Amino acid sequence: MRFRHPDGTTVHLAYCTNVHPAETLDGVLAQLRDHCEPVRRRLGRDRLGIGLWLAKDAAHALDTDPAALRGLRTALDRRGLEVVTLNGFPYEGFGAEQVKYRVYRPDWADPERLDHTTALARVLTGLLPDDLTEGSVSTLPLGWRTTWTDARADAAHAALLTLAARLDALADLTGRSVRVGLEPEPGCIIETTVDALAPLTAVGHPRIGVCVDTCHLATSFEDPRTALDALADARVPVVKSQLSAALHAEHPHLPAVREALAAFDEPRFLHQTRTVGSTGRRYGTDDLGQALAGDALPDTSPWRAHFHVPLHAAPAAPLTSTLPVLKDALTRLVGGPHPLTRHLEVETYTWQALPPALRPRGRAQLADGIAAELALARDLLTDLGLKELP
Fold it and tell me: What is the greatest pairwise CA distance in the chain?
C-alpha cells in the first residue's frame, strides 16, 4: 500500500510474511497464493505491499538462480503484490516448534550473517517494482548479549563496514539503493535506540541505520519522540519501522493479572519482560515465564512483555497493549513536515502463539486478522494527513 506524504514523498505500508512459516522458495510462492493475495482482496486493493521474510534456503535459491528470481517477481506482479522491504532478522527455523534464542544465530560476528544479508540485498534489487529504486532490509542488532565479547564486537564492526561497501557497489551496478537497519531488541547488544547510536555512528554510512520496532521500543519503556529525536540528531537513518504492539500489564502484583499473563507464556518464542522501578532503573527477564516464576521483577510498576499482539485487538482486561506507543512513534515518524522513514511494516508474527482462544482457526481467519491490522495502520496514516494512493 502506498501513501503520499504532504511533502510529496511516497510512504510504503506492508505486512511481514514471517507470520507464515516457509523456509523454501516453493513455500514462499505458496504464501503469495494462500495468504498474501487473500489479504489484498479483503482490503479491496489492486496492490498490496508485503515485507518478505526469506529464510536461508529461499534466499540462496533466489540469489543464485536468475530464473527463480524472475519467477518470484512474476508471481508477485500476477497476484497484485509488491516488495520494497525484506525481514532479514530470522535466518532459518522461524516456524519451528521452539525458536527462543535460536533466532539470534548467526550473529554479526559470524560471516554467515554478512553473506546472508548481502544475498538479501541483491535479491531485493531484483524484486523492487519498476518505478522504485530504494529498498530496505531489517536485521538483528549485532547479537545476543550473553555471547558477546570485544573480539566479536570488532568482527561485527568490520562486517558492517564490508556490508556498506557491498551496498555501495550494488547501487553502482544496479542503480538501486538498498539500506539495512539494525533492529534494537530487548536482551540484545543493541537493546534500545540509545544503544544503537555508538556502533552506527562508528560505521558512519548512510546505508546502515536502524529499524524501529514499536513493540521493542515499548517493551524497553523508551519514549518514542525522545528516541527518534536522538536518532535524528545523531544522523542515524531510520531505514524502516515495524508497526507492532507489546503486551502491557498495569498492575502485575494482582493475582488476576498474573493469571492473564500466564496465558501468554508459551514455548515457541522468547518474550522478554521489562519494568521500570521508582528510580528509573530498568529491570528485565529473558522470558515471561521467568518474570512470573517469583520475584525476578519488581511488581509495583507496570510490566511489558515482548509479545507482538494484534494491533486491532488488544488483549482482554486486565491486560492491554502498547498501541498508544505505536501511535506516538508513527506521529513522529511520518506526521511531521518530512517523514523520517518511507518504509512501514506491520509485523505481528505471533498469531499462532496467542492463547488458544485467540488464535485464528484456519487461513481465512488469519487473513481477516492481518487485513484488519493493515486497515488500522492505514487509518492512522490518513489521520496524520497522508493520502492513500491507488
Answer: 60
